[in-house]
Specification:
18 helices, mainly alpha
Length: 414
Amino acid sequence: MRRPLRLVLRDRTAGLPPPFWFLWAGMLLNALGGFLYTFLSLYLTRTRGLSIEQAGLIGSLFGIGGLCSGPIGGVLADRIGRRPTLLLSTGLTAAALLQLGWARAPMYIGLSALCVGLLAGMWRPAAYAAAADLVAPADRTRAYALLYWATNLGFAGASVLAGALARIDMWLLFVGDAATTFLFGVLVLFGVPETRPVADDKGPQRSLLAPYRDSVFVAFALAQLPLGWMFWQANVTLPLDMGGHGVSLARFGQLISLNGILIVLLQPLAVTHVVRLRRSRALALGALLIGLGFFLPALHPSVPVYAASIVVWTLGEIVVSAVTPALVADLAPPELRGSYQGGFQLCWGAASLLGPALGSLVLGRLGARALWGLCLVLGAASAISQLVQAPARRARFAAQPEHEAALRREDGLP
């Protein structure tokens, strides 16, 4: 007999401590106001009268700030604590967003965008490290899946809220984003204690550069870079390809909304099945689904195929998004969880810079079939890499004090 959905969801959310839910609510609020970047180029060209080239340069400054934010936020989370880093990031980001809305001269707009990009991503490694500190190791995959779900739930509402605010006044986009970011900090202030593990003064002090010297972690992070590169094609080259095949902008919006809808509907239900898979196989499966999903438009570029493509790579995204942060938390020493999460965020920041430029270059020079074929190759390469890396990860976990539990999590066993 099938269980009611209410009971299924209760099982997925049971056993997680109250501070985790404050983090969850904060990330939901933050995502609800995370609509500014989508409208930034329109704001700069239409409201501030900047050229397309100037808007593109400012967008690049925003991206450069985002690239640096993960490592800096991770180091701060390990040095001054998770809670202070979260409060610092959310408070300063809210102020920087208002400054960006007030700025008039292109130079000040660019500097403000750089600051927003840098500050707005600093909270993430601190939040993910805090989640690993708060939640039992066996529950981390489930917890990270719920955090990812909250982010996508917020983004689903952000598009509606952004449209309503933009119709009134574009300035309200900055106010709304700043307000939700600030409220995230308020939730942290009142609901999230400091969770940073106390370092053993008698033991050797680990360098904050340790993540970048850890060959097992670096190999894992680099295998995720092609996936991040592909996800950026959904924002840049996919709409261009659809437009070239007669798909209107409105229809593109409807199609791409399938991504958020499927994550909101399926993520809490799928996580139970994901945690039962051996991690190397789950990551390989997710990479193959993402590569295959982006490849499908090469077969027959039509609305039904584009829809099927988005469904397939979204399923891969659901699998990968639940497993990766939990694996990073297991690879990291407890006192360096922030630095490891920040190092992993650096990899996705690099994808955000490489994805639009290289994807557009391949599309423009070689065509859509070559681009989507490349995605299939990258997905397969990432999948093979995860399987090849599995023995090294198992050796790492076997050397840990809690090696039996770590190996069981790696194997998807209770």
